[in-house]
């Protein structure tokens, strides 16, 4: 499609993501705030949720200090499945953000 954004190679004729346009409309400060994990508890919850979905990862660090990906498994996922996975991630992140905001207003913890 000349001049338009489409995902033609997927054969779906779907225009570029409205979600991407929405996210890219945020200013840098807002993006940074939403991309920041606010507590160690949140990191723990994300790790547990990810492990429940995909299993426990075997992370091996090479002598060069990089992650060895030679034993990584590959998953095959449809475009619809990818959209559902993305929406679940956004929903889960939004839920965590709302809960952290509630806890911050209800209980006054000292930042570490």
Automatic annotation (TrEMBL):
Q: Which Pfam families match?
A: DUF760
Q: InterPro entries, per this entry? A: At3g17800-like, DUF760
Fetch the PANTHER family from UniProt: EXPRESSED PROTEIN, LIGASE, PUTATIVE (DUF760)-RELATED
Protein name listed in UniProt? Uncharacterized protein
